[in-house]
Design goal:
Layout lengths: L10 H10 L7 E5 L3 H7 L4 H22 L3 E8 L7 H20 L4 E7 L1 H17 L10 H7 L10 E4 L18 E4 L9 H47 L8 H41 L1
Parallel strand pairs: 1-2, 1-4, 2-3, 4-5
Helix pairs in contact: 2-3, 3-4, 5-6, 7-8
The structure holds 3-methylbut-3-enyl trihydrogen diphosphate (2 copies) and magnesium ion (MG).
The site of one 3-methylbut-3-enyl trihydrogen diphosphate has 11 residues, from strand 2.
Subcellular location: Endoplasmic reticulum membrane
Cofactor: Mg(2+)
EC number: 2.5.1.87
Length: about 290
């Protein structure tokens, strides 16, 4: 029996889902699944049982997302900081992750799992990768930009989350997707993760819909500003080149346009070459990791 697909929405849930789907829907939701231990304490069950129910809740939440047409979900399952917990808790979480995630993978579902993750680690790693690109001669220092850093993150294949949900009433990001959520709708909900319901998700989507136009505007403005800044930098470079060649910087508009075009085409070529090399480097690292742990 399928773990995710079993069980459909109730008639009332389906009715409300159809209403909400008439508005702008998120394409990608990120969850900080928090509150498993408090749940275990509240229900007087073992801590491991709280974590186990937390994993089960993830499967249920993915089913709701599928039913709502939300095609991408990212979850914070274990942070690097969580290694500081007791050995028995960490071992228990690793066992659960092995068991439950392999079951989720069998169902081919769309899920990004952040495990042994922190955002600052991800960002510093991306910076190191760009420095490596410069060192290898694949990149020019002037290629370094926010948009390149974005492409070096582990999330480079996904759109940034539309909504970030944290359960358990804690109002902090705990080093999760700090870069990717600057224009996301942040929703903090008091419910403990194993008790999360369809209606909690519904409420989060409503909040997103109420803020949608402001968020969209902020995203568009940010994208435009980034383009404008890049163009300004390119124009300054072309001016410098022309002056170095003894030409008048503002003289020939056609020449300036041609130079600008060449500059951005060459950058694009370098960036693509670097990203391909980076992908190979990462695949190689993963393959070596697989061999070492086999
Ligand atoms: C989240 O629940 C799960 C993990 C961090 C692995 P917690 O274990 O943090 O539970 P609380 O927040 O202490 O209740
Ligand atoms: C955040 O929860 C990490 C995960 C949910 C995996 P924590 O419970 O570990 O975070 P803090 O310590 O309360 O910030
Ligand atoms: Mg917690």
């Amino acid at each position: 029996m399928s773990w995710i697909k079993e069980g459909e929405l109730s008639l009332w849930e389906r009715f409300c889902a159809n209403i909400i789907k008439a508005g702008p829907m998120p394409k990608h939701i990120a969850f900080i699944m928090d509150g498993n231990r408090r749940y275990a304490k509240k229900c007087q069950v073992e801590r491991q049982e709280g974590h186990s129910q937390g994993f089960n809740k993830l499967a249920e939440t993915l089913r709701w997302c599928l039913n709502l047409g939300i095609l991408e979900v990212t979850v914070y399952a274990f942070s690097i900081e969580n290694f500081k917990r007791s050995k028995s808790e960490v071992d228990g979480l690793m066992d659960l992750a092995r068991q439950k995630f392999s079951r989720l993978m069998e169902e081919q579902c769309f899920l990004n799992v952040c495990f042994a993750y922190t955002s600052r680690h991800e960002i510093s790693n991306a910076v190191r990768e760009m420095a490596w690109g410069v060192e290898q001669g694949l990149l020019d220092p002037s290629d370094i930009s926010e948009s390149l850093l974005d492409k070096c993150l582990y999330t480079n294949r996904s759109p940034h989350p539309d909504i970030l949900i944290r359960t358990s009433g804690e109002v902090r990001l705990s080093d999760f997707l700090l870069w990717q959520t600057s224009h996301s709708c942040l929703v903090f909900q008091p419910v403990l993760w194993p008790e999360y319901t369809f209606w909690n998700l519904f409420e989060a989507i409503l909040q997103f819909q109420m803020n949608h136009s402001v968020l969209q505007k902020a995203r568009d403005m940010y994208a435009e500003e980034r383009k404008r800044q890049q163009l300004e930098r390119d124009q300054a470079t072309v001016t410098e080149q022309l002056l170095r060649e003894g030409l008048q910087a503002s003289g020939d508009a056609q020449l300036r346009r041609t130079r600008l075009h060449k500059l951005s085409a060459r950058r694009e070529e370098r960036v693509q070459g670097f990203l391909q090399a980076l992908e190979l480097k990462r695949a190689d690292w993963l393959a070596r990791l697989g061999t070492a742990s086999a």
